[in-house]
Amino acid sequence: MPIDMELEAVLRPEQLPMAPYPPKVITLANGRRMVVRQAKREDVPAILHSVRPCLSIERDYYDIVSARLYGELLAWYRYRVKSEFCLLGQVDGYLVGIVNSRMVDEKVGMSYHTLAIDRGLRIGSHLFAAKMEHHIEYLGQEEVLIVAESPIGFRRWMIEYPLEKTNIPHELGGGDSYRLTRQIYYAAKPRLVVGDRPVPPDLLAEAEAEIKFADDDTIRERISGLKGR
Ligand SMILES: CC(C)(COP(=O)(O)OP(=O)(O)OC[C@H]1O[C@@H](n2cnc3c(N)ncnc32)[C@H](O)[C@@H]1OP(=O)(O)O)[C@@H](O)C(=O)NCCC(=O)NCCS
């Protein structure tokens, strides 16, 4: 499909300058090492591959969260969203979790979604913490606006941090936003933000070489299967 670049210049929103997220490695409760790194725009089709099987899982609101995440990542891939970023969690190259977010302006971040594809290891919790780390420490923002779409999300973010309730509408259109301020972030950091830098070169190279994905049935079983697998 030919692209009219003159029209594209109008349709593509302006992007704010964004510092890169330095990759880190987290040792999970099962001893496996998860590389957390920033996705590149070209990674989006491979990421969507792992999101697709979640679209039909009603349990724990995986369907709505993955459908929204799918659209947001596509919007980034097709240059239709302002200043979005996406961080990935990979174990042995396999994608195990995704978080995305965007900058509203230099000071305010708008948290989008967190999706844990493997469960029972706090992968979602670690990736959400990495997302907040990026907003506050590397993008240098003052606050992040957050909503929860699931009871687990509410427990993980609003209660565990804990976040501050506001009357500010959130871009996702649900309940009003909760807010992570710099102060809340730094108070929660010793408990919730973990990982080591730099990532050993072989581990980072493996993660960057290929985003591997489990087959659909394995992903569905990991999400809906028995706890403590
Ligand atoms: C919310 C989310 C990111 C949290 O990820 P996480 O920190 O890795 O946590 P898990 O999903 O593995 O576990 C959450 C709880 O369910 C339990 N659990 C884990 N695996 C499970 C499984 N296969 N089936 C049922 N329960 C399971 C865990 O033991 C945990 O209990 P705890 O809170 O007492 O520790 C993740 O649940 C998810 O992706 N949910 C769907 C999308 C979503 O709601 N996103 C957030 C929007 S606000």
From TrEMBL:
InterPro entries associated with the record: Acyl_CoA_acyltransferase, GNAT_dom
Superkingdom of origin organism: Bacteria
Residues of the N-acetyltransferase domain: 34-169
GO molecular function (one): acyltransferase activity, transferring groups other than amino-acyl groups
Protein name: N-acetylglutamate synthase
Species for this entry: Longilinea arvoryzae
Lineage: Bacteria, Bacillati, Chloroflexota, Anaerolineae, Anaerolineales
